[in-house]
Structures are given as structure tokens and as C-alpha cells.
Amino acid sequence: MTSNPPPASSPFINRELSLLEFNRRVLEQAKDENVPLLERLKFLCISCSNLDEFFEIRVAGLKQMVKLGTPLTGPDALAPAELFAEISARAHALVDEQYRVLNEVLIPQLEREKIRFLRRSEWSAEQDAWLRAYFQNELLPVLSPIGLDPAHPFPRILNKSLNFIVSLSGKDAFGRNIGYAIVQAPRALPRLIQLPRQVPGTGPWDFVFLSSVIHAYVDDLFPGMQATGCYQFRVTRNSDLLVDENEADDLLEALEGELSQRQWGDTVRLEVAHNCPEQMSLYLMEELNLGPSDLYRCHGPVNLMRLIQIPELVDRPDLKYPPFTPRVPKALSGDLFAALRSQDHLLHHPYDSFGPVLELLRQAAKDPNVLAIKQTLYRTGPKSPVAEALIQAARAGKEVTVVIELRARFDEAENISLAEALQDVGAHVVYGVVGYKTHAKMLLIVRREEAPGGGATLRHYAHLSTGNYHPRTARLYTDYGLLTADPAICKDVHAVFLQLTSLGKLSRLNRLLQSPFTLARGLRERIEREVANHQKGKPARIVAKMNALVEPEMIQALYQASNAGVPIDLIVRSMCSLRPGVPGLSENIRVRSVVGRFLEHSRAFYFANGGEPELWLSSADWMERNLFRRVEVAFPILDQKIRERVIGELEAYLADTAQSWLLQPDGSYRRAEPEAGARPVQLRLLEELTGTGG
Known about the structure:
Helix content is 36%, strand content 21%. With 694 residues, the protein is an alpha/beta fold. The protein folds into four domains: 7-99, Up-down Bundle (Methane Monooxygenase Hydroxylase, Chain G, domain 1); 117-244 and 265-314, polyphosphate kinase like (2-Layer Sandwich); 330-510, 2-Layer Sandwich (Endonuclease, Chain A); 514-690, Endonuclease, Chain A, CATH 3.30.870.10.
């Protein structure tokens, strides 16, 4: 595998190449014998899904730059054509490795556990009879093969759909030679078919791919002709939405119109069966306007993500991560308003339950003293209990205001439906600010309470989070959520909501940092303060945990701090454009990535601050989009015990040698050398916070 340009060529690692490196680390989990077998299969599927999105968004945009002749892509100074060639080489190697892991590692181990994917050559006579009947009854009625001739031109191919190109011999019903036909598999058809155990010779978990069934009986689709070849293929298209917000009178309406076209964007990649003849591959490339570098040969199903169903279909708890019950802090099991008046509370998902957040919303919806609820929503998931609580609050007469980000990528349709449902019950729904995605995670509750000196007063309660209001991902992602009634923080949250709804000029915030206004500047000032403290002989250190670090000015600020002698530890899950450990540039910076059972999603920034530590949590990564093109907030942890707890957890990540990867100056990663008895940091936190192992 080729490496990133050497440090001398640029102080920055290319972000797209760094993202591919992250996907390689995900794939490594599929090879890790310490990970339960069915979970390893999941990691393989996730690596496939990640690569799909990489092509749909990152490669699609890059190909447009190549076409337009754009000279540079970013601070790393790689020209688009040069970068595309490097991406192509790495992506082809990654795809080859995905299928090697599937065929040589996972399938043999799954077979030993009686979980089998039966090839056509392995079907017994009874299985063949059952599958032929299945084809005749379930598949044939919904398949529409298209013979290619002047009256039947090459069809439009839906993004990421399963298709087959079939070569034919013999004459059609009108006495003509057809040559090729296309068979498109409707998305309603299951891609995996489980054979019933009553079929003789069938084991407890025997599966057949839909592609194998169609291939086996494809002749039935062309009566009087013979299929001489049948090969699956899949096309990836540009899936970025193009909505001119400045020209759109109604953003919701504009997005609804654009969503229908997402599946038909420009072609970006062609995946074909590994044994597809060269002539047929060339034909497909020509019809799809793609070149040889866009062709990927797959030794197995062209969409590995379909295998994600297997862990749900196979009842083998011994091959999965042990279940656990998230902790509900005792103080948050009763009157939540009273608990928040008493002190701040921090939830660390998934170890801590998301339940208290939902319960706070439900209590607010029912409480006659609650006057208003304001919330931002970016991703909530289908049938969201968060949305249901807001709907109940609006029906109960509360003043409900929801800032919904309609442009949350790949969740646009769900968010449009959510917006319409909230509007139907009288909630105020706004879509954020034109040109700036609202990515901040905030909830504010306004409640009428008795004042200390008698009479009534209004008190505010807030929830601020590093992650989305999504109960399912709260079981899969690591995130922090602060529950507080701190007047200064709540006042700032209220001010941000006023800005988002009224679009008025924001008053000065006393506690929060907000992008696109004060967040980047506030972080840089704190980095510079560490430099000044170090020069004065005071305690100075930076520890920052985030999903991605690519913004050039932030990286330069860290380089300057490193050159001044400030020790810097970074925990960056995915993309990182900073080169650590380069003499004269970054010798005091260390970067690690933690990949494990849970997706690391929390953002935490610690500054030693001369012996008076500061800790900030945020919804924002250190990317240009988060710092300058989105509405984000960072919030301080003021409670000393909570602050010490989070700092201790950051130290646990830095001490981890079981599931950490260390970034090298050339942009590659090497796995940390496990110390004797080393336990993954996620397992340690799971045991400490929930009392159960994983």
C-alpha cells in the first residue's frame, strides 16, 4: 500500500487519504480474533458502508474537481488528478482486502459455527427444488428483464442497487439476436434468503444470496433463449444534494424536490463480479461513462453491507458482544427538575442510559408549570421517542420550538417528515440559518417556579450534548450529555435559540463558545494561553478528543504550541491532517485513534491552564465546516467532580494499548503494542460504569 507524501512535502496529511486509513482500521477489527465472530462480520459490513459514502460524497466531489481542472484540493497541495490516482490505488487495495477477509477468514470461521453461505455448486437436489420454487413464486413475478436493442436502450441504474448483465444466445420472440440484457433486482427483494431447516440437508443457519438464485435460474427470464453469462454489478452515484439555499423560498420544499434526484446523480464507481468478462465490463463502463480506474471487481456479493442482517438472524449470543444495561444514575431516577436544581449531572453514553434525557422531556411535557421547550434536532431516527415527547408537549399546550436541520446528510427525508409532524400539532419549526447547518445539540426548558422570596419566577433547565438526540445511536456511540440548571449556561443557551429563531444579532455569551463566531477563536486563544503558561513555568498541557482534525489554522496553532514545548495528546477517531512527531514541527504531539465496540463520537478539550484546569465538551470537530460553516456550541464543565471524572476518562484513553492506533508522521497508523493484561478502554469503562463486561 502506498503512503502519504513524506513530511517534507507538506505539513498536512490529506484528509481523504486519512479517511481511507480510518476505514482500514475498521476493517482490521474484522480480523481481530479478540472480537466476537459475528461482530467481526459487522465491522466488515461497516467498512463497506463507509466506503460507499466515501465514494458518494468525497470521490464524487473530487471527480468534479478533476473534470473542471481545479488546481488544488486543500492545504496538503495535492492536485485533484494526483489525489484521485492515489485514492484509486488505495481503494482498490482496500476492496481486495475486504473480499479476502470475507472469503479466507470469516466465511470459513462462520462455517465452523454452522453459519453457511451456500454456493450454487453446494446445493442439494432438495435445496435446488426449494430455491427454484422460491424463484418462480417470489422473484419471477417482480423481475423485469430488459433486452437491449434500439427500442430498449440501456436503462437508468439506481444508486447502489443490485443489477445483472446477461449475455444471451438464440433469437428472441421476433427472430432477432439480442446479445445483452439487464436484470434489475427491486429493492423490496431480500438480498439474503434463509433456507428452511425442514429442507433436507439444511443446517440451522444456511443462507443463499439473492444474486445466486437469480444467476441459477436466469434462463427462466428469457424463454426460448439461453443465458451464456450472468454477472452482478452495482453503480455508485454522486449523492450530495445541490440546493441553492439563497434562491430557495422554502428550504423544505426545495429539499423534497432534490431528494427524488439523489439516486440519479453522476456515476462515480462500478462494481462487477470478479469473473465478469472484460468485454462486458468495458460495455458497462462505456454505458455508465466510467473509466478503468472506476472499475472494482468483487469476489462475492457486490454489496457486503447486506451481510449486516446475519447477526440479527443468527441466535448465537456466544458469537456477539455480551449485552449490558446502561446505568441510570440514582439521582436521575426521580424528579429531574429537583435533581438539576441540586447540581449538574453528566451522562456518558452508552455506559449511562439515554433514558434520563427522554424522561426530562416527558416530565416537561406533562408538568403544568413548564411553559416552553426549545430543542435542536439533527438526527433522531425513525419513530423517535424524542419527537413523540415534543409532540405530546405541544398537544399539552406548551410553547414548543424546534430547530430541525433538514440537511443532515442521508437523514433529510426523515427530518422533513418530522418537521411536518411537529407543525401539524402546532409546534414552531424552523430550519436553522441559510448557509449554516445547525449541528449544536441543545435542549432548553422554561419552567415557572416559586421564587425564594415568594411569588413566581422563571427557571431554565438545559441539556447540552456532544451527540444527537437519537436513542439508538446512544447505545452505539460514545457521547457526553450535560444536564444543568446553571443560570449562566442556560442564559447562553436561551440566547443561541433566540438567534436561531429570530436571526437577530447574538448578545455576548458568558459561558458558551459558539461557531461560526467565537468557537475557533476561543480554542486558539486557549492554545496560545498554554504556550504562555509553559513559558512562565506554569502547568501547561493540551488533551483533545474529537472525530476529525483537519482545519489548517487549528493545526498550525497546535504546531506552534508543540514548538514552544507544550505537551499535546490528541485522540482523533477518523480524519487527522496533523503530522505528529516531526522534528521542528510537532515533536511534542502524539495522536491516537481508538476503534472498538462503540463508535467514538464525543468531543472533549482539556487545557491545564496554569494549574486551574479547563474542560470543554462540544458538538464540533476541528474541521472548517464545524468551526466556520455550522452553528455549534462548546460548553464548559464547571463542576469539579465531573471535570475530574472526564479528565480521568481521557487519561484512560491515552493509556489504552489494547484498541489504540498511533498515527505516524507519514500518515500511516500502527497498532499500539498491547501491554501485559491490557484491557480495551471501552471495556474498562463498561465495567466501571455499568458493572458488566463486554
